[in-house]
UniProtKB/TrEMBL annotation:
InterPro entries: F-box-like_dom_sf (IPR036047), F-box_dom (IPR001810). It comes from Rotaria sordida. It comes from the Eukaryota. Residues 78-125 form the F-box domain. This is F-box domain-containing protein.
Amino acid sequence: MFLLIFGICICTLIIIGWKFILSSQRIDQQQDISNIVEQSHNLTLSVDDAIRHDVDDDEIQSSSTKITCDSNDNNVVRSILEFLPDEILLDIISFLKPYDIYHSLYNLNNRFNSIINDFQLSLHLDISHISKYEFNYCLSSILPLPSVLLRLHSLHISNDETYGAIALFIRQYPCLNIPSLRSLSLTDATISQIKFLFQKLSIKLEHISIVTNRTIDMNDKRLLCQLLLKHKTLRSCRLSLCDGVDCDETILNNSINNQLENIIIDLSYFQNILTLLSYIPNVKQLTININQQKYYNQDYDAAAFDIFRLCIPTQLTYFNLNLRFSNVEFEHIEQLLNCLVNLKHLCCSSFRVELVDGYRWAQVLERLPLLRRFECVMTTYIYHSLDLNLISQSFQTLFWKEKHWSVVCDYFQYLSRLIIYTIPFYKNLFTSTLNGSQSLNEFNDRNVLPSNAYDKVTHLKVSVQGLHSDSIPARKFRFVTSLSLCDGESYSDHSNSSLLSYLTSTIDLTKIRHLKLYSLLSGHTLFSLLCKAPNINCLSSSYHNLLQMINDFGDVWLCWLLNMMIKKLTLSYGRLTLSIVDQFIELFSNIEHLSLCMNMDDIDFQEILLKLLQNLTHLSSIRISLAGKLTDHFQSQTFTWLSTNQQLYSEFNDNFLDIWIT
């Protein structure tokens, strides 16, 4: 008992002593803080005195750099930002978006208002891929300001994920005039919207970009092309329409007086190139995408090239020809290039086996005396017997070595595909397989491929067929942000290890933002991949594959990881049903953009859609691919039902129902 009492006393003394030590340290800290506050107060007074003294001596010459401090108001706390000169603040603000400028700084004080309204500050308004709240703020609080319209140099509006944005813009500003506008970009607009905005805003335009996948009548395409070619102030334009434009000789009947220097355009047929070139005499850079498999809409006339020689655009130095689906013959490309004798930079991509001939390319390129740079990507499927070594050797002759144009020949056996391309690779999409490719070059990869060989590749498409071997040199793709896995299954532990081994040795998984799954992976494989690529926030997959990978919502850890990471989800080939919609909502409760398929004849259509809209609280937009025949009755009924919610804007686009949510 005595020992117990003695122990308690000792512990009590230790606790009292420890509290005394802590209290003394706290007193010292408070004294230090008081000293710091006093020093900072003295420093503030000295700064005020110095500023007052400088003002009295007229040492501050420019009113734009004056700093006004109210020393009598000791409660005002000023940020370091306010002590910067106006010129520096103007430079900083010029890097901000108009929404951030006006939402955060406008009406903060008179000084910031003066800086924001300075005519040296050019505004570039991009109201694409933003929330509906930000969009409404830009339309209601920024565009009405006269000082904005006089300094607005570029405008970008989009219907992609901001569904109906262009229609809302036109509805609110049907007579808008922006005298300072020099650049206009429209994405996924209808032909009526394009015509309206071009008519209203194109007076002094120097650049225009029109990109849309909507179905447009060929006559409307020709009319749009005609408007662009007749415009007198345009310097550059991009026209990317579904299936391209049939730009024939009837598109314009009078002389051309445009100033177009840089053009990117999708054409329907190869022969359209000759007609287009005769309408753009001042062009310097030209990119043409041919979309149709049929390369002539009429019988081929070789004399057309002889006529074309009389109206060659002599300033054309850069030519990029992408034959996406065209069956154009080599002799036609050869005749075209023989006319463009002033080229300095030539790019060409195709899927024609006839174009995979290094000897013939050397003959064509030798006739271009000013050519300094040649880039190509030629892909072909090997369906019959070809001497692959002979093809490779045709690109390794003395001509190619003297020009210092390194050409790589890769044969992907699992895909029966041959790809021939120059280094550095100039496209943003590269296709590969797990087991790599058989290099047909005589040299070693390590000796020919520089570290930046694939730096322009941002989208890597990988076939998961076969197994990865560490003995095969892996290509290094340092800046890939989108990864597609396709053609096969990776369902065993061995294939899981092979896939992850290939990806970790090929790309920086931490940079991946978008994962596209066109193959069936095991849940373990997908979980491991997501753990190694923690910045993935977009997922595209087929509906049934996703259900199988998450084991019909039974894989708890994978479902938890998907819920935490995925903000944008695109599902194809399958329809969401009422029986699992609650589980689906719980799994993807954090998504902001959703695209999926539904059957408009389903009696539960409205109930499923209502559950999605009410319970996915972070949802900003939803696109529904409608299966079945779209009727006027269904559209009217759906519009009536959705119009009861003021926070929704909905529209039908072909067989899609698009909804934008505030």
